[in-house]
Amino acid sequence: MRATFARLVSASIAIAILSACSPESDTRTGPDRGILWVRDAAEFDALTIQAYRAASDDLAALIADKSWTALPGQQNYGQLPPAIIFDVDETLVSNARFQEALEAPFTNNKLYQWTANDAAAPIRGAAEFAKLARDQGVELFFVTNRPCEAVAGVDGPCPQEAATVQDLIESGIPANTNNVMLANERPDWDREKVIRRNQIAENYRIIMLIGDDLSDFIPCVRKKVHEPCSSGATAASRDKQLELYDRYWGAGWYVMPNPMHGSWTTVE
User: Which of 50 and 32 is assigned the larger pLDDT?
Assistant: First the structure.
């Protein structure tokens, strides 16, 4: 898995090069350049294919190693069936076109209306990897911070769940509501995903975490405090967390590129 890590390091270098480019190197006008890059750049697709190919290369070994878990602190997992926890947005489904069309300010209802009424744009490499994992007996869970909340004129207390399942299916990943876990779907499912991850870990050995945000892997990395966190994160505390969990990057944890939005935008 060291080779896998090296491949993902190269992805980080590519993103750093993107960030270092001067504004004069792109004469296009319109949406934020990060949105344009996700929407249009072959390099973005290459990075997601690379990450999912790395995960595919590691899959068999992580299934076979009953001493392995990708969830720090998981206990008594050796005989549990294997599972992978995915984020959804910018991990399995791209929302670049929503970000491009968005008229500020962002609202949950604007995102719901977009996901409910527009065909999903799949992240390259994701559907193939999901099929490979399922074919090898791995259970897949989709832990998203799309909020579960009522929408005027729409039946049910959580229409976002059906819209999320629809997005996954449109992206080539068969799904149903059993394995989709939204924020606020239950009273203790806040935006801090560790609670949902730990609940899955009661019945499954978590062999991989795949997402685009540090919070998809590590708890308490947001500026705003959510249970069970006691204080907000800073850029310095996030860097420390990055180092603390160094052994997992590219070896059970796989990060998708997302320069558009995320918890990183809120900290100093």
Answer: 50
Half-sphere exposure at residue 69, Cβ-oriented, CA atoms within 13 angstroms: 20
Sort residue 25 into left (φ over 0), alpha (ψ -120 to 50) or beta: alpha
Angle between helix 33-40 and helix 42-64 axes, rounded to 10 deg: 70
What residues make up the domain containing 190? Answer: 2-266
Task: Transcribe 116-131 into DSSP letters.
Answer: HHS--EEPTTHHHHHH
Q: Which amino acid, 153?
A: G
First to last CA, the chain: 33
CA atoms within 13 A on the CB side of 183: 15
Rounded distance between C-alpha atoms, residue 238 and residue 17, angstroms: 22
**68 with 62: CB under 8 angstroms?**
yes
Q: Which of 31-40, 203-212, 247-256 has the lowest mean pLDDT?
A: 31-40
Q: Which two tokens stand for residue 141?
A: 């869970």
Q: Which residue has the tokens 């190919």?
A: 53
Pick the closest to residue 143 from 227, 187, 209 (CA basis): 209
| Nearest alpha-carbon partner for 210 in 160, 249, 174, 243 | 249
- What total number of domains does the chain contain? 1
C-alpha 173, offset from chain centre? 15
Query: Residue 139 is inside which H or E element, if any?
Result: strand 139-147
- pLDDT tens per residue, range 240-260: 999 999 999 999 999 999 999
Domain CATH for 22:
3.40.50.1000
| Predicted model pTM | 0.89
Q: Are 90 and 57 in contact (CB under 8 A)?
A: no
